[in-house]
Design goal:
The protein is an all-alpha fold. It has helices at about 5-25, 35-50, 65-90, 105, 120-125, 130-150, 155-170, 175-265, 280-340, 340-375. InterPro entries: AH/BAR_dom_sf, BAR_dom-cont.
Length: about 375
Amino acid sequence: MFSNFSLDKLTTTLTSAAAQVEESLKANALLPTEGPSALSFQKASRMLQERVGVVAPEDISKLPESYTALERRSDALVRVLRRLLLVTKTYEIEGYDYPPNLSESLNDWWTQQPADAQSEEKKKKVQFSKSFAAAIAKSAYESEEHLKALRAPVNGKAAAAAAEATAEDETEEPADEAEEEEEDEDLAHLIEVFGAWSKVFQDIDASKVQLDSVMIKEFNARAEKMVDGDYKEVTKLRAKVEDSRLEFDTVRHDVKVKEARAQAEKKDEKPKSEEKTETKTEEKDEKTAEAKDEKTTEAKDEKKDVDAETESEDYKLLEKLEDEFVSNTTAAAERMMEFASNSEVIQLVKLFQQAQLDYYKKCTAELEKNMAFLNTFDVEDNE
């Protein structure tokens, strides 16, 4: 179906159409021939021609290699920052590390126990955040409260029964009494273990909240500023460079066309008249011809003056646009050098690593302290 398709034909057609539209607008006085509007239209037309590839490469001003290298580096850096933010934005999601398979029904298992199995302390619930560390802390805390309920009298009847049992126990052997005390002591130790376990992970969770805050308010904020603020500024400056290049190339092309046209007109000038004869008739004709030549010469001189003035204005405009092109290129290059500087990126990485280091140091310290506490219990190692 597309066997006869030719990209060159399409390019030629587009260019021809653009040229025809431009000539038609000029012929109908719809296109301004002077001023900023004319330059804007010519610039847009040239941009189209460059994009379809009909402008010769040598007619397009080349930016310095150092400038294009800065462009590539800036673009690469912003892709790196966006890739990092894709991960670190996770810190802004509440409960991002909360186990997805940990259902609330399981997490609140203790609340399903009989009311008389809950102590007064259990009813005073401690608030926990939604994180993995907090989930562990909450599980240990509720386990501690459940164990406390085993040794606490639930109501008045239970207290009376306990007092009666104590009176009867006075007649029992001391061995039984010692055994009960040992059981109470074991339960107390277990309660301590779960209480300490819960406290450790509450502290770890608090450290995680601090880590999240640093990542959100400092790391993410600085990275987003580089992407949404600094890089956008770089993009605007680069757009100004491209715009000034197009203007300069457009006017330069226009000047070249005018110069070529002027040279062609010189070649088409008629040679001087042949030498006149000495006859009176010829002298009269010669005088008439000379008068005509003088008028023609005056007209040509006036045209030359106008052309020279126009040419001078064109060169002044070309020089002005060249200065703007150089100035805009310099400004954009300087801003890209600042943006793509290693120092800002390395500072970001240091901030990330320091926040992680502080968090894991806190976790290590809390776990070491808890292990020292657990080692005070004389338990047999089954391994």
